[in-house]
Request: fold
Amino acid sequence: MDQTLFTDDFKETPYWWDAAPRPEPAEASLPAKVDVVVVGSGNVGLSAALTLARGGRHVLVLEAEAAGYGASTRNAGYVGRTLWSKFSSLQAQLGTDRAVALCNEAVASHHYVVKLIEHEQIDCHFTYCGRFIAAETQSQLKMLKDDLAAMVKQGVEIDGHMVAKSEMHREIASDYYLGGMVLEGVGALHPGLYHQGLTDRVLNAGAVIIDHTPVTAIERDSAGFKVTTPRGNISARDVVVGTNGYTGPPTPYMARRVIPTPAYMIVTEPLGLERMKALLPTGRTIIDSKVNIFWTRPTPDGERLIFGCRTGMRQDDLKIKAREMYGDMLKVFPQLEGVKLSHCWTGNMGFTFDKLPHTGAHEGVEFTTGLCGVGIPMGTYLGHKTGLRVLGDAEGASAFDGRPFPTRPFYTGNPWFLPLVMGYYNIKDRLAR
Reply:
C-alpha cells in the first residue's frame, strides 16, 4: 500500500469536522468572578453548563484548545444504552443489585439524550439504527447469549436477540465473524453537529465559553475557588471538571484515576448507497467482542464506511496508522481492497481502572470523568446530574455517585503501560480465534 491508498483531499482531522468545523478563536475578556467555572467544553461540560445556566447561575466554560476539540467531536457517534463492562462482570464485581442499578442508569442516560435532542430540536442526524455485536469465537457467542439472558432475568431494560452464523449476512457482509447479538433501541448521530447543538443552547442560555484558555490550577479560597489561567484568575463559588481523556496536572486527583487512551478511526471515500447497503444491510452500528475491539458504521449520509480499531497503540504519524488500520478493515471486508481513505484521526477516550464512569466531588470540586467509551449518553446525562448537584437539586442523585474511585500506586496520569497492556490483549485476541 502506497500513497494511492489516500484520496487527494485526505485529512488528518475528524470526518465530523467537515460539517461542524472547530470555531476560530474569538476575542473575549475573562471575567474576574462567576458563579461556576466549568473546565472542559465537551459533552460533560456543556451539559452541566446548560443545566446550571438555566438554573440561574452565571457560568463560564473554559477550554484549553478550540471549543469541542476533544473526544466529544472525535468519537464514533454511538448512542447506546449499555456500559463498557458486561453485565456478568459487573454482577461478579459489585453484586446483582448494584450491577442492575448501574445498567439501568445507563439506559436512563440513553433516554435522556434522545429526549434532549427531540426537545431542543438538535439537528444531528440521530437515528434509531440498532447495534450488532459480532462474535469471532464460540466462547464470545456464548458470553453474549449468557449476558443477554442475565440482564433480562434481572430486569435490566434491554431488547436484544441472538444472530446465528447462517443469518449473519443480514447484518454484515463478512465471513470474519461467527454470529452475534442485535441490540434494538440504540442509535447513532453526528457527534460534531450534536456538540454544536449543545454549544448553541449553552450560549443561548447565557453561559460564556472561552476557548484557548487552559486552566493551570484550582485552589480553595474564602470565596470558594480561585481558578488560574495564563490570561488571569477567576473567582468562582463552584467548579465543575469535565475533561475526561484530556485530564491533566491541574486536577491531580482525577489525573491519577483516569487513563487517557488513544482511539483511531478511518473513513473511506464515497462508496455509494448501493455498495454500502451491501456491506451493512441494516445500517446498524457494529462492534465486535474482542478485548481490543473493531467497530464500524455508515456515515450519516450512508455513502461511506467508518472503521475504528487499534485502540491504545499510540502512533503519531496518522498515515502509518491508517495503513495499519486499512489492513484490519480488509480482514473484515476484503471486498474493499483498493478503496481509498479520505480521513484518519485520533482522540483520547477516558478509561478508569474499574472500567466504569465516575461522578462526584473531591475537595469541593465537582466532576464527571472516565466515561469508558460511552461518552455521548453517559457524558451528557452525568454532566446534567453534576449541574443539578451544584444547584442543590435532589434530582442530581445518581447510582454512580460517590463510588470508590480506584487508582494504582505511582500512577500520576501518564499511561506508560498502555502499549504493554494492549499488546497483551492483542495476543489474547489472536489466540482466541
Remarks:
- Residues 96-120 form the longest helix (25 residues).
- The mean pLDDT is 95.
- The radius of gyration is 21 Å.
